[in-house]
Amino acid sequence: RGLPNARPPSLRRSNVRARYVREIMPELPEVESARCLVEAHCIGAKVTKVEFNEDGSFDEKIFKDVERKAFVSALLNKTLKAAHRRGKHMWWDMSGGADSPLFHFGMTGAFSIRGKGAMKYKAFVVDTSNWPPRFAKLVVTFDNGIALAYTDPRRFGRIRLVHGDVTASPPISELGFDPLLAMPDETTFASHFAKRGGPIKSVLLDQTIAAGVGNWIADEVLYHSRLHPEQPAKSLTPAQLRDLRDAMEGVVKTACDAGADAEMFPDDWLFHHRWGKVAGEVGGEPIQFITVGGRTTAFVPKRQKKTSEKPAAGVKAEPKKRGAENDEPSKAPAKKAAVKRAPAKKVVARKAPAKKPPPRKPMAVAATRSLRARV
Q1: Is the dihedral of CA 343, 347, 348, 352 positive or negative?
Q2: Measured distance CA(264)–CA(351) in Å, rounded
Q3: Is the pLDDT of residue 298 over 80?
Q4: What are the catalytic residues?
Q5: pLDDT classification of 16: cutoffs 50, 70, 90
Q6: Terminal-residue alpha carbon distance, the chain
Q7: 3-state secondary structure 160-222
Q8: Which of 45, 92, 219, 321 could bond 208 through an S-S bridge, CB–CB 3.0 to 4.6 Å?
Q9: What whole-number distance in Å separates Cα of residue 288 and Cα of residue 242?
């Protein structure tokens, strides 16, 4: 079941294993599960101790442009007021301080809480049997007895200090809409794609458009909206854009309601069949793998067909923001083809059950029009 407590050298030795981990880097649902973990156990508690690597050293690669003394000062004896997230980034509001710690989990970054649990990943298991956990880069202890650790075997995550309003400073200020927190209306949503000539898969991965959408979410959304990943974004019709919006909202909310636990995802999702470029099928239809914008892409040709590449009419374009942190490439040549396709099947977001029923039953997902209020 993946890579339990895998060490970085072993990850580097296996190209297949490294590619697998790259495919499952944390996306919006995984980071939201980390935020919920912090919210459930740490809000309102005061920080009494700040520690770093297992050997006590300070990892300057992970702590981006931050001095050890400044980071300790920003947290020590401060109360954690709130944990926020936008896209793949999370930050804490600390009482009595002007600096906020900002976390980006990279490929293998994770939060765990002593005796309470940890974030869940498909490719590897976060260590909860030792304390501090293996690969711990930061351990924060609170006055309520809770101890939280940030672990990162591959060390691609980043922890920064942001002064003042976090949302007004890069990288947060440069991100697009968050599909869970602020899904735009249909007209505004469509405007983001009206003049984007690149493949829709690449455009979805652009963090200045939809913050938090990564490789597996993009593939899942395109599967449910019956869109070919190489279809030029600007050629999508109003109906296709509505399907895309509904699918994105449904997939993201369903995954977040499940706590990013893949075992709780609906059985009819592409997610369960797309890993490792292994030939398979979903719903009785074969899965094909291609590369779009430099990213491995899983899709179902029988379901996801290219349609007309004529630009959609009646949608005003919104200028693209520049300089945002973009985790994935966003441009790739589009191929031409014109085939009629079946209408997309609506996706319905449904709250995941508290415990997984054995065996899993297929569950259709559909988009909700309202989102839960979040701190």
Answers
A1: positive
A2: 10
A3: yes
A4: 26-27, 88
A5: very low
A6: 33
A7: EEEECCHHHCCCHHHCCECCCCCCCCHHHHHHCCCCCCCEHHHHHCCCCCECCCCHHHHHHHH
A8: 321
A9: 25
